[in-house]
Amino acid sequence: MSATLSFVAPPPGLAPLVDFTLEEIDGAAGLYSLQPVAEPAKRLFVLDAATYLNQYTPVISDDDRAALDLNASEDAMVLVVANPGEAGTTVNLMAPIVVNVHTGVSAQVILEGQDWPLRAELTPKAA
Fold it and tell me: Which of 4, 41, 56, 94 sees the fewest Cβ atoms within 10 Å?
């Protein structure tokens, strides 16, 4: 899968970039590379929350849903930024990337008033 995403505002730390490509990593369903079109040497790894984080249920504000033109939960894909490290991989659950699956319009939203961690340890699923 490959898609073009257009952010309503630059993701934190990536200003002024708003146009990105989302490429699925071969052999790893739900794992993607997110790269700015203008600077393809930069890259973030993101995970499809629905694939990896069954208990993750962020509440997206009315303002964010309106900005992304989301009318139903099926219209949205929720991605979380993965941060690989020597001690393991963490994911940012406080600021997911929400994508309108029909238009590619996206935003990294801050989940204010919700108790999601900035660095949650990613653990393997039990067999």
Answer: 41
Nearest to 66 by CA among 105, 23, 116: 105
Q: What is the pLDDT of residue 2?
A: 77
**E strand spans, the chain:** 2-7, 19-24, 31-36, 44-48, 76-85, 88-91, 97-100, 105-108, 120-121
Strands 120-121 and 105-108, bridge-based pairing: unpaired
Q: What is the pLDDT of residues 55-73, one digit of tens each?
A: 999 999 999 999 999 999 8
The CA-CA-CA angle for residues 87, 91, 94, to 5°, reads 135
Instruction: Report d(CA 49, CA 119) in Å as an integer.
Output: 14
